[in-house]
Design the sequence.
């Protein structure tokens, strides 16, 4: 779910610092965003380990505990691997390919060689259904 970008330099009091990124999507309003975190691993005076999540230079609550939507403050948020919001945004803003218009398709006509009869048959739906219409009763 997260992407570990690698170890960074140790901060004051941190045993190790790991960078992770997540994509978020609010199931209430549909807003999506991405955030990178520096996760600092610390040990307190009694020897217990704990981590601090740092985003944009500020200590923040763990995004995994109870994430809140940055748009509507909703708490039904899906957490995904990084890049999911960016790839969905890129796909939404990519120029759409317009399919060719639907309609009858003509098969190319093979030009008969000299001396060969030119037999062009126009198929109808009844011609195609003909084998199924003559069932033995």
Sequence:
């Amino acid at each position: 779910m997260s992407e570990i970008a690698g170890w960074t330099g140790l901060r004051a009091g941190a045993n190790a610092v790991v960078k992770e990124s997540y994509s978020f999507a609010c199931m209430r309003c549909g807003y999506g965003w991405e955030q990178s975190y520096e996760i600092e691993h610390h040990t307190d005076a009694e020897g217990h380990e704990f981590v601090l999540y740092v985003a944009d230079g500020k200590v923040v609550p763990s995004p995994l505990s109870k994430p809140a939507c940055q748009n509507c403050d909703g708490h039904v948020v899906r957490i995904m691997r990084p890049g999911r919001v960016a790839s969905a945004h890129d796909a939404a803003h990519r120029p759409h390919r317009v399919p060719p218009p639907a309609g009858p398709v003509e098969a190319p006509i093979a030009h008969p060689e000299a001396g060969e009869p030119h037999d062009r048959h126009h198929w109808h739906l009844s011609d195609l259904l003909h084998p199924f219409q003559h069932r033995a009763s």
